[in-house]
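User: Structure please.
Assistant: Input sequence and predicted structure:
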Amino acid sequence: MSPGSQSGGVVPGRDAGLRVTARVSLLPVDVRRLARDERADFAAFLATLPPRQWDAPTLCAEWRVRDVVAHVVGYDELDARGLLECVGAT
């Protein structure tokens, strides 16, 4: 009996006839607008956090919520050159 047959599951790479298709959007995407919208949504979410939540632990060892937020938004101000400088590529 092959893996996945007992539970009726699909085993990628083993089940015959399994086809994966991808859809490609032909519509132009304004990445800057998407980034602005995402930042606005994130800021709106952060505004709902009570003060005690900012010091709550996270899944990142030794990081509080405030540390994760600083990490996420800290890179927002960097351009391509700034990112390269951070990784020592310049």
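Confidence is low (pLDDT under 50) at residues 1-8.
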